[in-house]
Design brief:
The complex is a heterodimer of chains A (360) and B (307).
Chain A: E1 2-7, H1 13-37, H2 42-51, H3 57-82, H4 90-107, H5 120-146, H6 150-170, H7 205-222, H8 224-234, H9 236-241, H10 246-273, H11 284-294, H12 299-322, H13 328-349, E2 350-355
Antiparallel strand pairs in A: 1-2
Chain B: H1 3-32, H2 40-58, H3 61-85, H4 90-109, H5 134-139, H6 143-161, H7 163-173, H8 175-180, H9 185-211, H10 223-233, H11 238-261, H12 267-271, H13 273-289
Helix pairs in contact in B: 1-6, 1-9, 1-10, 1-11, 2-3, 2-4, 2-9, 2-10, 3-4, 3-9, 6-7, 6-11, 10-11, 10-13, 11-13
Classes of the chains: A mainly alpha (360), B mainly alpha (307).
Chain lengths: 360, 307
């Protein structure tokens, strides 16, 4: 007897809904086993990771703050991945967006502001999104015009973006009065994202994330462009036959995902951090890839998945303090989670079948 | 340039190229069988951490090497099960493997930060190793460098001259035809992925046991990704991969010497050289590719036999 996979004729909505949930359960079980193996208490870890972040309003806001960039980036990535184009360099586009947007805040710092300086924040957001977009377009250009693998070029550009940020923060953008620390001046209030309520921590960055979900959902459901993206991804031959420009679509999806990542980057420096530093991302660009898949490339799924991944990031930080657990445990868990998602994904396309057969 | 200077530069090129050669040759075999494993970086860094940890605990370099290879194979087994038997998306699974491998390496290595041990011993043959230039370049490396050369030669011979190599290439070119001919598509792919994992782990072991004999988080610094690019750059041919690795080794050495010479070039620009070189290599290659010689036909596609 052996087990075979058989292609499903029709998709089952129940399985599609259950698959990501099962994947989370599976990843939690595997993570627990791993913890037990290295001699930590899985029960305590479960409490620290998945229960404590919900314990008070402060932690809940933290959850939303960390989820915002993930959701924003993943909404953009969904366009690429639906079209079967592999932008895995969102981390780099995030960093470049933060750098360029943040530069405006640093340059205008301490100047007499025309118009009360109210143009500064919008200019930062716009410049950050534009920079992220152009940075992603390098990859798109190399893919369309030269034929270079977008996976490798976008990933190499992550390293280059990080090095560029490091160079400027230690060089021209360094705070001259900052005792030689590699960081810029703290941004003025006018260059910071406003808080959603007085005395709270949650800043306006989450509004962009929610807007991205709405927009992506609208585009996928209601527009021809959304349909084209899916067509190129699922039936490239048919798309080509229909006389469809794959090149133009490649540019479009990279532009969208790059702009989303760049915007997330500038929101991070203008919201959470408030200045430029050598490192501005705890790997949001990579975690967002997991968010996109866990959300099954559906905008509303991405919203939920962003919260789940945010939970693992916060849980990881808490566990580092409460249980002296290395931060790397978060990475292991995230990798495991993505693998479980992909493994479960199989059952949305295939069904298990037992085959009885005599050995030949 | 004096002879010793030349000797030193060429010697450094050979050592800097070694981790790239070993990892690239493994991935080349994997890709020739039609599977794209993007997890090289993760397997390599896990190999580096495990190799160093075991070498410190047992005091044996040989056991360290085996641990590195084992770590790479273990991770590649997970990958193989997912993409070969469950037909999971290869790009995403490879990324997951890199994320997971980086995390596991951090966990394993966390207790070993700051420790140092002696680098693996170098070959010394009286007379031969003392020859000018040739002695230094051919007869005074450590085990890993020779292993790398042997792997290149072995894989080149295997792919071109053996029946098994032909089977592997046939499966990579067109898995449906290969299946129809009765070739064991999934078994061969499984073995090819394992071989790639072993090589990535070995490359990691070289980094932490010989190249820089200590453990530091992120010490692979994208070498796994560069190895992936090398496979493309080499048009999936072993000897070209070796030549490409030497070019990259050259870029690394350029970086080191420019840093030492203090030419006033910002350090960050020099750090970026390997990554810029990779992009450049991909561009040059892709332009040339229009003349022919493309990827294995089934590369990156999943295969599920129709009973």
């Amino acid at each position: 007897m052996r087990i075979e996979l058989e292609r499903r004729v029709a998709q089952s909505p129940i399985i599609e809904f259950l698959a990501p949930l099962l994947a989370i359960v599976m990843a939690v079980l595997i993570g627990g086993a791993l913890l037990a193996a290295i001699g930590k208490s899985p029960q305590q870890a479960f409490l620290v990771y998945f229960i404590e972040p919900f314990s008070d309003a402060w932690s809940l806001q933290e959850l939303a703050i960390k989820a915002s960039p993930l959701i924003l980036i993943a909404s953009g990535l969904a366009f690429c991945y639906r079209a079967n184009l592999w932008n895995i360099g969102a981390e780099g586009q995030f960093v470049i967006g933060g750098l360029v947007g943040g530069t405006i805040a640093v340059v205008t710092h301490g100047m007499d502001h025309a118009l009360g300086g109210y143009w500064i924040l919008p200019a930062m957001l716009f410049a950050g999104a534009l920079a992220g977009m152009l940075y992603a377009m390098i990859t798109a250009f190399l893919r369309v015009k030269v034929g270079a693998s977008e996976i490798l070029t976008s990933l190499m550009l992550v390293y280059i973006a990080e090095i560029t940020l490091d160079y400027f923060v230690r060089g021209r953008l360094r705070d001259p009065k900052g005792f030689n620390f590699p960081q810029s001046v703290p941004f003025e209030d006018i260059a910071r994202l406003p808080f959603l309520a007085e005395g709270e921590r949650l800043h306006a960055g989450i509004l962009f994330a929610l807007a991205a979900v709405f927009l992506a959902s609208f585009v996928f459901r209601r527009t021809l462009f959304g349909f084209d993206v899916k067509l190129v991804g699922s039936a490239p031959k048919a798309a080509r036959f229909a006389g469809f420009s794959e090149g133009r679509l490649t540019f479009a999806v990279f532009a969208i995902s790059g702009a989303a990542a760049g915007l997330a980057g500038v929101c991070e420096v203008a919201g959470q951090i408030g200045q430029l530093q050598p490192v501005i991302s705890p790997g949001y660009g990579f975690s967002a890839i997991i968010v996109a898949f866990l959300g099954r490339l559906q905008p509303w799924g991405i919203l939920c998945a962003g919260l789940v991944l945010s939970l693992t990031i916060i849980g990881g930080e808490n566990a580092q303090i409460a249980m002296k657990m290395p931060l790397d445990m978060t990475r292991v868990f995230q990798g495991t989670l993505l693998m479980c998602v992909l493994a479960m994904d199989v059952f949305t396309r295939y069904r298990l079948r037992l085959v009885w057969r005599r050995s030949v | 340039m004096t002879l010793t200077m030349l000797e030193l530069v060429l010697f450094t090129i050979l050592t800097a190229a070694t981790p790239l050669v070993i990892a690239a040759i493994g991935e080349l075999v994997t890709e020739r069988s039609g599977v794209l494993n993007l997890g090289v970086e993760g397997m390599m860094i896990a190999g580096a951490a495990c190799a160093f940890a075991i070498a410190i605990v047992t005091g044996s370099t040989a056991l360290g090497i085996l641990a590195g290879i084992g770590a790479g194979m273990l991770l590649s087994t997970i990958f193989a099960v997912l993409v070969i038997f469950l037909a999971a998306n290869q790009v995403a699974t490879g990324l997951a493997l890199t994320i997971m491998g980086t995390g596991l390496a951090g966990l394993v290595g966390s207790g070993f930060i700051g420790l140092k041990r002696d680098a693996a011993v170098h070959l010394y043959i009286p007379f031969l190793s003392d020859l000018p230039l040739i002695g230094k370049l051919l007869f005074s490396h450590d085990l890993f460098v020779y292993l790398g050369w042997a792997l290149v030669a072995g894989v080149a011979w295997f792919l071109k001259q053996t029946r098994s190599g032909l089977v592997l290439r046939a499966i990579g070119e067109n898995h449906h035809s290969a299946h129809a001919l009765g070739l064991p598509v999934r078994r061969v792919r499984f073995l090819a992925v394992l071989f790639g994992g072993a090589c990535a782990g070995l490359a990691g072991a070289y980094l932490s046991l010989s190249y820089t004999p200590f453990w530091a988080p992120g010490m692979t610094a994208g070498r796994g990704w560069i190895a992936l690019a090398l496979v493309v750059f080499a048009s999936w041919r072993p000897l070209y991969a070796f030549a490409g690795a030497l070019l990259f080794g050259g870029a690394t050495v350029l970086q080191l010497h420019a840093q030492a010479a203090a030419l006033g070039i910002p350090g960050q620009l020099l750090t970026a050289v390997p990554y810029l070189a990779t992009i450049l290599a991909l561009i040059v290659l892709s332009l040339r590719r229009k003349l022919g010689q493309t990827a294995p036909g089934s590369l990156g596609l999943s295969f599920m036999p129709d009973r």
